[in-house]
From TrEMBL:
Entry-linked PANTHER family: BROAD-SPECIFICITY PHOSPHATASE YOR283W-RELATED, PHOSPHOGLYCERATE MUTASE
GO molecular function: phosphatase activity
Tree of life domain: Bacteria
Organism in which the protein naturally occurs: Bifidobacterium imperatoris
Cross-referenced InterPro entries: His_Pase_superF_clade-1 (IPR013078), His_PPase_superfam (IPR029033), PGM_Phosphatase (IPR050275)
Cellular compartments per GO CC: cytoplasm
Protein name: Histidine phosphatase family protein
Pfam families: His_Phos_1
Amino acid sequence: MPVTTIHFVRHGKVYNPDHLLYERLPDFHLSDVGRRMARATASYLASNPQTNTIAAVYSSPLDRTRETAGAILDALNGVREKRGEAPLELTTDERVIEAGNEFRGKRIGHGEGALWKNGNWKLVLNLYKPSWGESYQHIAQRMDEFAREKVAQHPGKQIVVVSHESPIWSYRHYLETGHPEHWMFLRHTALASVTSVTYDNETGRVMSITYVDPAADVK
């Protein structure tokens, strides 16, 4: 039975000394720790015989995801070169981008991000939808559309997709429960972690979902 596995990788830690909600804003890059996280996850994927045959690498177009994907590509292409295989290149896709958030560019609870200013309180009335931005339903739909397309394009293969916490967890929650709505405080998607979803190529059915945190000990 042919199957395709998509390894959804969350980006590494971001350099953000002002503690802003960076959402989809440009020029938020990996910190030194974030780069080490990315390399740790890249090493995990490239050194594991079960994953170093990955056939394609995709990411969100944002800086932090492309930088994380770059570390993964460097590690995988080193293995591919030894096997005499052509190097992989990064493809970006808007469908796996960070969730839209009306607090972008603000520090939540401080200054213009204070809940008592500018009607901000209205944005946190529903933690389940959520009311501060893009709905979990829409996030899961675009992630599923992307995933199903790539499963069809890469039958019997493994691919990597570097994305963000909310899209990865919303999609996983949708696959596991039938609905994407969740409490954001209960997400299980650590920085540079890998959530792997395996699909039956003939039926599209999800065969398994696994999770590892290769960068857990990175300081």
